[in-house]
Amino acid sequence: GVIDHVDHLQRLGVTGVYFCPIFEAPSNHKYDTLDYLKLDPAFGDEKTFRKMIDVLHENGIRVLLDAVFNHISEDHPAFQDVLEKGQDSKYVNWFTIDSFPVDPSIPNYEVFAFERNMPKLNTAHPDVKDYLLHVGRYWVEEFGIDGWRLDVASEVDHAFWREFRKEVRAANGTCYIVGECWTDSQPWLLGDQFDAVMNYGLTESFLTCFATGETSVRDFSYAVSRNLNWHSQNVNEVMFNLIDSHDTPRALTRAKGNIERMKLLFTILLTFPGTPVIYYGDEIGMMGGQDPANRACMEWDETKQNRDLFDHAAQLIALRKQHPVLANSGTYHFQRIDDTKQTSVVERRQGEQVYLLVVNVSEEAQSLSLEGTYESLLDATTLSGTIQVKAVSALLLRHV
What we know:
The chain is α/β, with parallel strands linked by helices. It has helices spanning 6-12, 46-58, 77-85, 126-143, 158-171, 200-210, 217-230, 233-236, 251-254, 259-269, 307-322, and strands at residues 16-18, 23-24, 35-39, 62-67, 111-112, 115-119, 147-150, 176-179, 196-197, 240-242, 275-277, 333-338, 343-350, 353-360, 366-376, 382-389, 393-399.
């Protein structure tokens, strides 16, 4: 699908693709690895994979793979050996086992998320460490991938991640490392482990303000201030910002199918400092509740896509590239907040360059006053004085 439809990614303007696990595994979700060095045949073979990487690289798009190093499948040969031989297995210390014989029906060993079919690996064991570090290097060196997303990263010890960073950076000095952490992630972001984490701390604030209307624009400003002040600037500039993922209901579903709210979400996300991430299909209006409803196949038929939403996202991505102040180089300051009107004005500034993001979350048009003259980047009009902001929408302005 990626090879055949790379033009879709080109037109959208993305510069990277993060794939959920592609290694051999018995499940549909593939987070229960059987062999980290083998592609799952459901996705194709190595020749096809290499072709896809070449096609993406030729189009300026980098590739991130999902490293599921916290746990493996119960059908993995190492765990099967433990089930068969118990304490005599050479792999017995690869896992944390409470008692013998090993009994998957209880289970009497550490697992991921109470799932007995996913025994947790002991990443402090030298053999396990060597095995997984080899995997990390292998896909970077042999296939030229550009980064890793680290599954359940907060449940793997810091010492392992420090060695992992050294290994993959030795293979590729610009390899991007992003961890899945759902809570305060500062200990992983001190420069010796991850470049960024999936910014779930901000995801819910995006959604409750702009998708569901459960919280106010002032609440959102507080969440943003906390989030940006938690981390150093270099971390904020590459933070993995998202409004949904394979682990959450789709954003448009949270917005009850309201396309205008989805457009507003994209506007906020794509003008925020960091690395904005769009879950496949969101840009064309795909909906879906909790797993597995949020993991439907990509809809490639353009007659079934919301092309207006796609064009809106593509325009914002293009503007982000044309105006670096909207990405990572500019400050992010709430200039005005009005909870009564449900409006806010965010200033993005670098030196003499000033941009405003004027947001109206309410269901009615609102008027605001501007000091100075501005160009609207979304429709190329010139604005000054009192301006009107349509319901559930935003204006992106550049001072002229």
